[in-house]
Amino acid sequence: MYRSFLRQLWRYYVMGSAMAVGGVGTTFMLTTLRVSAQEGKWLIAILFTSAMVMAAAEAIVFARDVAPIRRFFASQSPDPSLALAAFKQVQRFPLLAVRRILGPHLFGLSIPGAGLTALCIHYHILSLPYRYILYALAGAVLIASLHGLIEFFLTTKACRPLLASLSAQIGSMAEQVPLSISLKTKLQLTVLFSSAFPVLLFSLATEIKWSMTDPNGAHWSYWPWAATILLFCIGFSIFLTRLLVEEIHEPVNVLLTHMKRAETEAYEPIAHNVYTDEFAELLRGFNHMIGAVHSRDQLNKQLLDSFITVLTAALDARDPYTAGHSLRVAHYARAIGEKLALPPEQLEVLYRSALLHDIGKIGIPDAVLLKEGKLSEEEFAWIKKHPVIGESILREIQPLEPVEPLLPGIRSHHERIDGKGYPDGLRGEDIPLFGRIIAVADAFDAMTSDRPYRKGMEIHQAAAILRQGKGTQWDEEMVEAFLQWMEETMPSTATAVS
């Protein structure tokens, strides 16, 4: 692929040179200059010598520019950093091509050419005026600019297969690489240059023709008027360029804005499609796509909610004495989250985590789970496994992404602030936030719920136990948030809670 990339670059370079230098440059020189056959041979020799200098200078810079790409493809086992460096360099390569054309290519050709031409004029080998060197330099800048523009677009085309291959190597890192040049900038420079270039080239050719027919310089009175026309043409080109760029940039900007919103699951269709060209079709297609993605996202959420409901019902069916426990714990946990000012998306994850916090009890033997008396140490060891079993059950779901945020709360809801909890013995803020929240909600509902072997506590007793356990068993902030919510939402229990 690397060799194919180099061959394509070489073909495009020759094509661009033929169009800019061979086509425009040669036509410009042959139709404006009048030299003898002998002088023509000297000019060709000067051009050939300068081309050798240009090729050497450009080859050195090209080798430096292509080095990160070559290192990646030369490596037997390239690491991601090499792939990322190569990707960034390929993305910048069209701009580097312009820099090579306007750098070593332009100066490698024009400086030796100007110097050799000056020597030939000095020793009367060429009968041209010295000012023709200035004309040649001005023409070289124009031709090199045209060549650079052509090279930019041809190199961009050559880079796309390589970018596709490298992006597969680096995955999501490709999205983090900034754009090398915006569409707006490309449009502005291309349209402006393509409008101004013929006028500038014609003006230079006219100056050379005038100087040949009027060596005494009487034609200079013509140029103030010509400069006015030239400035008018360039100004008009700038104005039209701006109109065209705005006409294209506006719908593109609308699309980009709505795409960024879609990344945050804000599936907002484009309300006003006011365009009458291909952008109208593009925006309509975007709206259809957004509608389909939104529908699929809603369906996935419904499926996830249904799955969670089924699992919760299965647990309730397994242990009828705890029926409704998961739902109450989820209600309490979300209330704590709201008091902590958690964002809506986190509240939704917290609620789902709390609904499934005891799902691991499905894996506990009936003799242990349904026992009405006090558990033995061996039986309690079984009960202590349920957070890990619950996490393991959910890890079997594919794809894992929708349920992965639920796992920390499920695994850690029996951890204690003092590190004496289970299954991992985490301490303080090492315990995940959702685990600390669910621990308070779970404990309160367990204390206040009736069981066959005991009656549930009064609210004030449970509140007192929560307060006593602040900083040791439960997170102090979570306890205070929960009790404050109880006071605000259940006025009748405010005195008991206090």
Topology:
Elements (H helix, E strand, L loop, with lengths): L1 H31 L4 H38 L5 H43 L8 H40 L12 H31 L9 H41 L14 H41 L6 H15 L4 H12 L10 H4 L7 H7 L2 H10 L11 H6 L20 H16 L10 H10 L7 H14 L4 H4 L1
Helix pairs in contact: 1-4, 2-3, 3-4, 4-5, 5-6, 6-7, 8-9, 8-14, 8-16, 14-15
Short description:
With 498 residues, the chain is mostly helical. The protein has helices spanning 2-32, 37-74, 80-122, 131-170, 183-213, 223-263, 278-318, 325-339, 344-355, 366-369, 377-383, 386-395, 407-412, 433-448, 459-468, 476-489, 494-497.
Structure overview:
It is elongated, with a radius of gyration of 38 Å. The protein is about 75% helix and about 0% strand. The longest helix is centred in the first third of the chain and has 43 residues, at about 80-120. By secondary structure, it is mostly helical. It has helices at about 1-30, 35-75, 80-120, 130-170, 185-215, 225-265, 280-320, 325-340, 345-355, 365-370, 375-385, 385-395, 405-410, 435-450, 460-470, 475-490, 495. The chain folds into two domains: about 1-210 and about 225-265, no CATH class; about 320-490, Hypothetical protein af1432, CATH 1.10.3210.
